[in-house]
Specification:
mainly alpha, Arc Repressor Mutant, subunit A, 61% helix, globular
Length: 194
């Protein structure tokens, strides 16, 4: 089908944008944000790393083929990538939960040695990640997007499909819980979540 608003299956036209083709532009965008989006899916959403990498790659291909002109015009285009990847992961986790009745999708998060284990060589980063993993999923996601990725409250709300008020509440609750988990011994906020 062709006409206004429809593009050929081969992708967006290779038109120079500021001396750069759209393919070069999206390649740079991918390289710049890839690791951060994967980290969000793994650490904040509890998605297995290999699956997270696959989802992130699939989503960027969809963006490149269908939505790049629209996405690149956004104030913070990576927010769209986070939102689409998080939704796809949630959908995949839901499908898996239906197939595996006794499995908890967050069980793999418990594989990191507990920071208090005297026999485990756990550095500060691993200890912090282990504590973050003890937060409820939504608090983990909000904490990660707000502090580690520096998204605004409204951008975080848009990515997660919740209200700005919910973002504020979840962040407050996450910070309070982190203070409880870490006690007086750590200044976790200074670490900027990794």
């Amino acid at each position: 089908m062709s006409g206004p608003g429809h593009q050929a299956a081969s992708g967006p036209p290779a038109v120079d944008v500021g001396g750069q083709s759209p393919y070069e532009e999206i390649s740079q965008f991918f390289a710049k944000h890839y690791k951060a989006v994967v980290a969000f899916l793994v650490y904040a959403c509890g998605f297995p790393a290999p699956d997270a990498e696959e989802v992130v790659q699939d989503i960027i291909l969809v963006i490149r083929e269908r939505y790049w002109p629209t996405v690149r015009a956004l104030e913070k285009p990576e927010a769209y990538w986070y939102k689409a990847a998080e939704r796809r992961c949630r959908r995949l986790l839901g499908q898996r939960a239906k197939r595996i009745a006794e499995g908890d999708p967050d069980e793999h998060l418990l594989g990191v040695a507990h920071p208090a284990d005297q026999f485990a060589a756990v550095d500060r980063r691993q200890a912090l990640i282990a504590r973050i993993r003890e937060l409820p999923p939504r608090q983990r996601q909000v904490l990660w997007l707000r502090l580690a990725e520096d998204f605004s409250e409204s951008e975080t709300a848009e990515i997660l499909g919740i209200s700005v008020g919910s973002v504020k509440r979840q962040l407050h609750d996450a910070k309070e819980r982190m203070k409880e988990l870490l006690g007086d011994s750590a200044t976790w906020e200074a670490d900027q979540i990794l």
